[in-house]
Amino acid sequence: MNDQLSAYIKRYTDLEAAVRILIARKGNSLCSQCSCICCDAVMCVEAIKSPFLKLIHQQTEEYDTEKGFLTTTGCALKKGRPSVCYEYFCDDHFYNQPDELHADVLKIIGSLLYHAIQGADGETSIDDIQTLEELDRADFQTLEKNLNESFQALEIIRAFYRDGKMIADSQRFLKTIRIPEEFQ
Ligand code: SF4
Ligand code: SF4
Q1: Contact 116, 15 (CB under 8 A)
Q2: Measuring from atom 2 of ligand 2, which residue has the nearest CA?
Q3: Counted domains in the chain
Q4: Distances (CA, A) of 111 to 65, 67, 179
Q5: How far is 105 from 12, CA to CA, in rounded Å?
Q6: Percent of the chain with pLDDT over 70
Q7: Contacts of residue 144, Cβ cutoff 8 Å, sequence gap at least 6
């Protein structure tokens, strides 16, 4: 693994940990009380097909062909989950938000990891790269730019949750982090 990949993985892992904290925030996550968990082994398999995610989680041996990484206590992956696992919030999550801006911010939280992994090789995201050799040759200039934008959005969201306000420029910036509708 080259230094650029190593540095990118470290910062991406920090971003994933920060996203998890925001999602677990009171009022944002209903999943821990859910009786109809929407995890699916079809999504889990992404975490063992992707060399990038495998380098992060290093838990491939815990994958079960029927249940994926889902256990009786939730997902076994502490990090390196496919970004799609952070993207989906069922409608109940949005009913629970106090207003439209909070609902929009929740969607952006779900887009932070997606945004950070785009542009590894043209339109290919880094989690879709299939070999370690190709990973080392990824476009780290673009990846770092996107990762930095996700961190910038993260800081805006943290400030919003702290102060309850967001200026128009910040709202405009967050709109650039969204997952394109055709992929939702
Ligand atoms: S997103 Fe909704 S349906 Fe899926 S696990 Fe969370 S609460 Fe349950
Ligand atoms: S959160 Fe974990 S168990 Fe759920 S779909 Fe993602 S990898 Fe699988």
Answers
A1: yes
A2: 75
A3: 1
A4: 28, 25, 6
A5: 20
A6: 97
A7: 8
Asked if the structure places residue 50 within a domain, the reply is no
Is residue 138 within 8 Å of 126, Cβ to Cβ?
yes
Dihedral in degrees, nearest 10, Cα atoms 10, 12, 14, 19 = -170
Q: Does residue 86 lie in a domain region?
A: yes
Closest ligand (CA of 75): 2
**Cα-Cα-Cα-Cα dihedral sign, residues 84, 168, 29, 23:** positive
Q: Is the pLDDT of residue 102 over 70?
A: yes
Is 36 domain-assigned?
no
**Distance from residue 42's CA to the centre of ligand 1 (Å):** 16
Q: Which tokens is 157 given?
A: 């969201």
This prediction's pTM: 0.93
Q: Does residue 179 lie within any of the structural domains?
A: yes
- Taking the CA of residue 151 as centre, how many other CA atoms within 13 Å lie in the half-sphere pointing to its CB? 12
Structure tokens at 179: 């997952």
Residues of the domain holding 109: 3-30+82-183
Shortest-distance Cα residue to atom 7 of ligand 1 = 31
